[in-house]
Amino acid sequence: MTNGFDDAKEIEVDYARLRVPFGPVHPALKEPISLKVTVRKEEILDVDIGLGHVHRGIEALAENRNLVQALYLVERICGICSHSHTTCFTQALEEIGEIKPSERALYLRSLIFELERMHSHLLLLGLMAYEIGFDTLFMFTWHVRENVLDLFEEITGNRVHHAMNTIGGVRWDLPPHLVGKMNDTLKNLEKSVKYICEVFQNKTVEKRLCEVGVLNHIEARELCVVGPTARGSGVNVDIRRDYPYAAYGELKDSFSVILRNSADAYARTEVRISELFESINVVHTILDELPNGSISMEESALKLMRKIPEGETVSIVEAPRGELLYFVKTNGKDGLWRLKVRTPTIANVLGLKPMLIGGEIADIPVTVASIDPCMSCANRVTVVDQGKGEKKVINWENLRRRGKKQ
Q1: What is the model's pLDDT at position 264?
Q2: Inter-residue contact 277 to 144 (CB < 8 Å)
Q3: Integer CA distances (angstroms), 274 to 93, 176, 239, 260, 281, in order
Q4: Which residues contact residue 359 at a Cβ distance below 8 angstroms, ignoring those fewer than 6 apart?
Q5: Looking at the DSSP assignment, which residues form a beta bridge with residue 381?
Q6: What is the pLDDT of residue 391?
Q7: pLDDT of 59
Q8: Contact 268, 261 (CB under 8 A)
Q9: What is the DSSP string of 209-254?
Q10: How far apart are CA 109 and CA 353, in angstroms?
Q11: Torsion of CA 41, 225, 324, 276, to 10 degrees
Q12: At how many degrees (to 10) do helices 82-96 and 103-131 cross?
């Protein structure tokens, strides 16, 4: 008679838990979040996204400064879309104070907006190339982006924080001699973007990005993602067209809203490439139709600030990453009762869960990059192997290399 346990076999089950510590707090992170990814071998099973810090430090700082000081503070929220933040904040103050900027000032705001969109999209396209191991394309794309930064420097004197906006208008005008130079730069830029587009259509690139990080149309609408992330899932939304601001009411025929329906990382990349051509068209139109007149009010910004009464409003613009929203409540005494900022990343990061589930570990860098987030502090991953009881830290570069081997 045999023991029933004699034939028992020991079975080892491979199971690992991958923890991706995006935050929750880091000086370079605008939207403090915590992102933990659970995997079985290479397959992603679940994603836990933790959001926190509803009242962020920069909002509290702004509430303890006057309106002009707060204007320069909100510009520092993001270096890539600094003009979007100051425009959103400034037009809120102008609505409360019933201040109407000149047509020329509004056109100039739109000009910087589209240049900013171009520089942001080129930055992201370079990062996407880097994530898939295409370093040559990364370097070329960022080289092209330098041309846009050079235009910023010539117009405003600054390459990153432009300090373009002021209450009631803009601080920098466009000299006549720059118009011809900008047109020449845009022609060369268009040729370079066409080349970048052709390279991204390479079958090797398509294979790495297609069917990766899928966010279908229904999920995109339910999660209220914004910008190219939403348009890559076929959601027809663009604040420039739907709620025109600055000079976009007059420029609505100069651009089209780009949509894609494949809803993957490649679709979101395609949207940004196509939007580069649309931004070039808008800038050409602005240069051709730029109205004459002053660029700011006769009164200084400090005098206008003191005339802004107590009131509140919501202001929205289409930043390069999507809808940027400001809630502004003034106290009637040169300052703010409340400032609330909702950036595009805080909306789009919710889409990471359906994008990542079902994918592989190697797809994490590409998928995260495809929403163009402000989460550069996510530089290491802790992997806990529950079967072996081992724990190790993998830096972001090693994780990226795994993706390049795919």
Answers
A1: 95
A2: no
A3: 33, 29, 17, 10, 11
A4: 43, 44, 212, 213, 367
A5: 394
A6: 54
A7: 83
A8: no
A9: HTTSS---HHHHHHHT--HHHHHTTT----HHHHS--TTHHHHGGG
A10: 36
A11: 80
A12: 150
Identify the CA nearest to 265 among candidates 127, 66, 101.
127
pLDDT digits (tens, 9 = 90+) for 41-79: 778 888 877 665 444 578 888 989 999 999 999 998 888
- Compute how many other C-beta atoms are within 10 angstroms of the C-beta atom of residue 395: 11
Q: Can you name the residues that pair with 319 across neighbouring β-strands?
A: 322
User: Domains of the chain by range and CATH?
Assistant: 16-53+347-404 (3.30.390), 57-342 (1.10.645.10)
The string over 338-367, giving b where at least 16 C-beta atoms fall within 10 Å of a residue's C-beta and e elsewhere, is: ebebbbbbbbbbbbbbbbbeebbbbbbbbb
Contact criterion met (CB below 8 Å) for 347 and 371: no
Distance (Å, rounded) from C-alpha 83 to C-alpha 113?
7
Taking the C-alpha atoms of residue 173 and residue 102, their distance in angstroms, rounded to an integer, is 12
Task: Please check the confidence at residue 398 and state whether its pLDDT lies above 80.
Answer: no
Structure tokens at 295: 């660029």
Beta strands 43-51 and 336-342 are unpaired
Task: Render pLDDT for 78-114 as a digit per residue (tens, 0 to 9).
Answer: 888 899 999 999 999 999 999 999 999 999 999 999 9
Helix, strand, coil % (nearest 5) of the chain? 50, 15, 35
Q: Is the model more confident about 233 or about 9?
A: 233
Per the structure block, which two tokens stand in for 330? 């003034």
Residue range 161-173, pLDDT digits in tens:
899 999 999 999 9
Kindly write down the DSSP assignment for every residue of 269-294, as one continuous string.
HHHHHHHHHHHHHHHHHHHHHPPPS-
CA dist 117 → 62, 83, 216, 272, 307 (Å): 26, 10, 25, 9, 33
Helix, strand, or coil here: 336?
A: strand
- The per-residue pLDDT of the chain, averaged, comes to 85
